[in-house]
Amino acid sequence: MAQGPVGGLLSIVGTPIGNLRDASPRVIETLGRADVVLCEDTRVTGKLLAAFDLHTRLERCDENVIASRVPAVLERLEAGERVAFVSDAGMPGVSDPGQKLVDAALDVGLKVEVIPGPSAVTCALVASGLASEHFYFEGFLPRKKSAQVARLEELASVPGTLVVYESPRRVAATLANVAEVFPGRRVALVRELTKLHEECVRGMSGELAAEVAARDEVRGECVVVIAAPSAEELDGRRRAASSGPATLEDAIAQGLAAGEPKSALAKRLAREFGVPKSDVYDAILNAK
To answer: What average pLDDT score do residues 42-70 get?
Structure first.
């Protein structure tokens, strides 16, 4: 951590991800001593402060305004103020725009401290029961199906457990895509971490996707944990990559020669090469 020669103190504070009793004494002390608490949503953080009878001033500093607020925050720090920065839940800077503020403060030599708190990444990883020696945190995947599948394909060769954040509204569709890309892997869905209705559902990717799709509703923020690839899967993917067509044009020629329907070919190659399906389809028509 940077120890600047002058100025106040920027405290990056990890807050509870559900259960307010997870707030440590140091978290409470830091929020109480701050001159101002910067937060995503003043209503959410206001409940946290009220639970511990804290009356520190709150100011909104979410992803939409944080870039414009950085100069003013640096001025406060240089004037000697204590500024605490929190997200709605968890550790700021992890899948969160707070890193912009940290970087700006460190660049000008101001003091930055991190107050540890709960993290959905590590909690879900441990709860999943999947190997945790090596893991890769992806954060949120792209929302569009084609882009999401393409990204999952890119992650397929990561030699570790994958951890993904997802909203309850999109988690069923995401699990279906995970089952499509990783048909032979174990997957866990962890939701409502540290809360009364905490749940961890485990199973093979296809089974879990079907189970969640059959639910009327999924509630609570979700974490999807995907097992690392086996040695056999990694070998297969490497062989496929080395033997596959080098260019989109070559792949189109192979698909057409094999009699693959144009629409299906366009869909497959768009996913494999990470380009829009419409562009691939136009290229197929030109090739014919």
So the answer is: 95
The C-alpha R_g of the chain, in whole angstroms, comes to 23
Place of tokens 């097992």: 227
- Cβ(120)–Cβ(16) below 8 Å: no
Instruction: Give the side-chain half-sphere CA count within 13 A for 77.
Output: 30
* DSSP 8-state assignment for residue 89: S
Q: Tell me the Ramachandran region of residue 272: left when phi exceeds 0, alpha when psi lies from -120 to 50, beta otherwise.
A: alpha
Instruction: Count Cα atoms within 13 angstroms, Cβ side, for 253.
Output: 7
Question: Residue 74 has which token pair?
Answer: 């640096």
Q: What is the pTM of this model?
A: 0.78
Average pLDDT, the chain: 90
Q: What's the CA gap between 279 and 59, in Å, rounded?
A: 46
Beta-carbon neighbour count of residue 105 at 10 Å?
26
